Amino acid sequence: MDEVQVTTRLQHHQLTNAQVWSADGQSLVYDLRPAQHLFTSESVEKIDVETGQITEIYRASQGAHVGVITAHPQVNERFVCIHGPELPDADWHYDVHHRRGVILSAGEVETIDACDITPPFTAGALRGGSHVHMFSYEGDRISFTYNDHVMRQRSLEEDQRNVAIALPHQPVSILNKTYREHDGSHFCVVVSETTLTPQPGSDQISRAFEEGWIGHQGYITLSGARQRWALAFIGETVSLEGHKVPEIFVVDLPEDLSDYKIAGDSPIEGTEQCLPAPPASIKQRRITFSEGVGVALQPRHWLRSSPDGSMIAFLMADPGGVIQLWVISPNGGSPQQLTKGVQDVQSAFTWHPLGKGITFVYNNQIVVYDLASDALVPLTTKTSAAPCSEAVVWSPKGNKIAFMRDIEGFRQIYTVTTTESYWC
């Protein structure tokens, strides 16, 4: 199968790690940062993969930057991305704790997460920066990672990365706004719980990150009931020897939207001394116990669930130190090693829309791990330089996979077609 170069302009084109295809599978969305590590894109675009037609979705103004765009899984022309502050200055500029999420739809720009950085803080608002926004399968809820401005003002260590969600049932207005505070269209809450100094050998974590929604409709619990809403994320534990060990955690989320307003031991909006806390009904639980191996942090990847919610895929080293693809049930249990290659898995990954396989970079090729045959299927020819590691994304119809290559100093977008009827 031949790969097709989709973008050709002499500039950088950056795909996010998932949800980069329009709902109809016709277009790909991306930002135009000048380099992979520079978050200074001024616009986000889409390109029709058949015609090559490029459309600017949104252009920031007043010195703001935008990027890390994802597409609504069910609705064309609806997107979400990071938006940096307008009129940035030395005290408030694009950074992990100074950015927001925005929904882009029909020419309108809607800020998702309200920001309230002066006490008394507001329930449903956050206090800093959101990042890598992912729609749930229906698209009505959005997950993201979060950093806190208020705690960072106390010390860098106290701004611990967490996982948060945005719920559409109630816009949030900030009373007596000060400069840099703003309203939001969604009620936002942190759903992970971090500890500044985790107890060695415990399930406490210092940060939470790289989350993913579990299943299109949640997952089936050990009791046979359906847990409709849940997220998996990586949490950084501390071993008895004092080493940081990334493990997988799950949070089951309530269906009743009113439950998100009920605080537990700490306020959901946070205080001047502590981060925003999860609602009372949300408790994180650890599902991997890797005995010090830990989930791989390189290549960087995000936990991704099978469509039916029965398996959470992740990367971890095997006993020989080779990075392999693994899966585990959201109920916990023993992880299952899928790949058994002699070389590392080289990239983030995504699932086939019907759960038939997982695609990623291996041996400098785009490959598919076929669950039915327990085999790796190469889709592209091996090259001296591997495809880029950040994004290998299956289309909604299962007929194409999008990825990136660095060509003559610029990151370009490619697709490869999965023509066999099995995948389509």
Describe this structure in words.
The longest helix has 6 residues, at 149-154. The chain has one helix spanning 149-154, and strands at residues 3-5, 27-31, 43-48, 54-59, 66-71, 78-83, 100-105, 108-111, 128-135, 142-148, 162-167, 187-190, 208-213, 219-220, 226-227, 229-238, 244-253, 284-286, 304-305, 312-317, 323-328, 336-337, 350-351, 357-362, 365-370, 375-378, 393-394, 400-407, 410-417. It is mainly beta. It contains 1 helix and 29 strands. The strands form 8 sheets. Strands 1-29-28-27 form a 4-stranded antiparallel sheet, with no helix packed on it. Strands 5-6-7-8 form a 4-stranded antiparallel sheet, with no helix packed on it. Strands 9-10-11-12 form a 4-stranded antiparallel sheet. The radius of gyration is 21 Å and the shape is globular. The mean pLDDT is 96. β24 and β25 (365-370) form a beta hairpin. Pfam families: DUF3748, PD40. Belongs to the TolB family. This is DUF3748 domain-containing protein.
